[in-house]
Write a structure and sequence with these properties.
The protein has 275 residues and is mostly helical. The protein folds into 2 domains: 79 residues, DNA polymerase, domain 1; 159 residues, Intergrase catalytic core (hpI Integrase, Chain A, Orthogonal Bundle). The protein contains 12 helices and 5 strands. Helix 2 packs across helix 4, helix 6 runs antiparallel to helix 8 and helix 6 packs across helix 10.
């Protein structure tokens, strides 16, 4: 069957359903793109909207496990919410999520990056990500009014999962922020301004990529967030507080940092040293 003529109608319904459910623009974009690829696959192969065609499509994809899982989630949503015909998870099994440990940067390396960072705006970007455990989108959406200098807190609004949370602001960062506020001409209410308004994700990634190369690592926003959580754990902060600062719904998600924190591991003596 040719779904070329029906695909736009299906995709429009998909977008509308996602909006009604309050999904983020990024999720809507991903779901729409993934389902459009699936529908194109059906059209080219003259296949029907069935469980077998979903299995055939997923088997043709040469992607990472996490990318396959996103494809699966998109098509599953499409069958359940738009076609009203959810497929059986036993019939179409989903690959298990890859359990890789978070990549963490040492305190020494972060200090080296900050020492290299002479641009005030760039320093504010790196310090905000590391000192408050922000995600990239949360940093981009951060407004000047969201920081309480008296209480040393930062209000993350509409974070992942449409949730608000309170996290901490470093004393070390406050002076940089005040200097930045007094020396920068703002044309929006956001802390980070670009030429056309709000600063872009790509601009932040370029800044981190530049300094990462200086210290010979691949530096990403999430690595700084991971380092924030791990270093808090190493200095004895209760993991339940770290969970709240990161905005995790489940403590189990936060507990992954116990596998990379070396506060206890460093105390263990190798049996070789006792020979």
């Amino acid at each position: 069957m040719d779904y070329t003529n029906d695909s736009q109608r299906y995709l429009q319904k998909l977008k509308e359903r996602c909006i009604l459910k309050g999904y983020s623009s990024q999720t809507i974009k991903s779901y729409t793109y993934n389902v459009s690829r699936y529908l194109s696959f059906l059209s080219k192969g003259r296949l029907n909207l069935t469980n077998d065609s979903v299995k055939s499509y997923l088997l043709t994809l040469n992607l990472s496990v996490n990318s396959i899982r996103l494809q699966y989630a998109s098509i599953s949503f499409f069958f359940r919410e738009i076609l009203k015909h959810p497929f059986n998870f036993d019939d179409i099994p989903i690959k298990k999520r890859e359990k890789s440990l978070p990549k963490v940067i040492s305190k020494e390396k972060i200090k080296a990056i900050l020492n290299l960072c002479q641009n005030l705006k760039h320093r504010v970007i790196i310090k905000l990500l590391y000192s408050s455990g922000l995600r990239l989108q949360e940093l981009i959406n951060l407004k000047r009014k969201d920081i309480d200098f008296e209480r040393n807190t930062l209000h993350v609004k509409n974070g992942k999962g449409k949730k608000d949370r309170i996290t901490i602001v470093s004393e070390n960062l406050k002076l940089d922020l005040l200097k930045y506020y007094s020396n920068y001409q703002f044309n929006t209410e956001y802390i980070l301004n670009g030429r056309k308004g709000k600063y872009s994700k790509k601009s932040v990634q370029k800044v981190l990529d530049f300094f990462g190369k200086k210290v010979e690592i691949k530096l990403t926003p999430h690595m700084l967030r991971h380092s924030f959580a791990t270093h808090l754990l190493e200095q004895g902060t209760d993991i339940r507080y770290i969970q709240k600062l990161l905005g995790h719904s489940n403590l189990e998600t936060t507990q992954i940092y116990t596998h990379v924190a070396n506060s206890d591991i460093a105390k263990i003596k190798s049996p070789l040293d006792n020979l």
